[in-house]
Design the sequence.
């Protein structure tokens, strides 16, 4: 699976489940190219999961591209999603859409691992009794979901602070790997600038240190192009508390 398609990089063409957070071109602009490349390689059509209001627009783009090329549209399945919809992408994995807060309607996504575990009321029984119950057709297991990866796309810090008190989105802060944005990382832009533009300032990450105490790895992405890799590394060292420094990774 993949999150967002602003460009085609690496082996993303091989991903058949693509989750789009919002309609800005740096997050959705390469969907047509992705569908085209898969068609060229004779791969089955991918599924593109998008906030519901984007579905007709994306269908229109595929149709318009076909018209410009004088051909049929590239094969693609557009799947509209609302907040809290769930998608079973395999027998072992499920993706849940969660609300985020950007300048345009947007969604984030949480990837869960699904495992069938013995129900609590049967865990004290010996194996022979459990086997007998199973032979008798008794449902002795239930599915348990473990939050593995979360991706917010573009958002304000509000999506994360809200998750601390909202049972429906709390798993954003319980994952092994959280990928979120930190568009601004210096004093030239304020936290209010970030809020006004629908983004996060790295100082807001620092100010909400405790939000991330259960996250194993925090990947920060979507930095403004004004920053070099060296400047960003220095910002992490100078602006984040130690508890976050050791778990934070710079993305792109």
Sequence:
């Amino acid at each position: 699976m993949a999150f967002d398609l602003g460009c085609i990089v690496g082996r993303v063409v091989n991903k058949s489940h693509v989750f789009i957070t919002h309609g800005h071109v740096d997050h959705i602009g390469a969907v047509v190219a992705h569908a085209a490349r898969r068609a060229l390689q004779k791969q089955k059509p991918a599924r593109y999961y998008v906030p519901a209001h984007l579905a007709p627009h994306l269908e229109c783009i595929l149709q318009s591209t076909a018209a410009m090329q004088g051909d049929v549209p590239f094969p693609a399945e557009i799947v509209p999603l609302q907040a809290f919809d769930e998608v079973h992408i395999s027998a072992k994995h499920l993706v849940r859409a969660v609300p985020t807060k950007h300048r345009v309607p947007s969604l984030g996504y949480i990837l869960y691992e699904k495992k069938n575990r013995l129900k609590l009321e049967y865990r004290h029984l010996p194996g022979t009794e459990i086997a007998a119950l199973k032979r008798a057709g008794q449902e002795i297991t239930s599915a348990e979901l473990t939050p593995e990866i979360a991706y917010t796309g573009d958002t304000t810090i509000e999506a994360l602070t809200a998750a601390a008190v909202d049972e429906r989105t709390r798993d954003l802060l319980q994952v092994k790997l959280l990928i979120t944005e930190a568009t601004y990382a210096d004093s030239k832009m304020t936290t209010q600038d970030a809020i006004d533009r629908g983004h996060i300032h790295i100082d807001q990450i620092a100010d909400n240190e405790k939000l991330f105490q259960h996250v194993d790895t925090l990947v920060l992405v979507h930095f403004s192009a004004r920053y070099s890799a060296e400047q960003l590394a220095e910002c992490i060292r100078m602006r984040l508390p130690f508890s976050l420094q050791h778990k934070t990774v710079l993305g792109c």
About this structure: The mean pLDDT is 95.
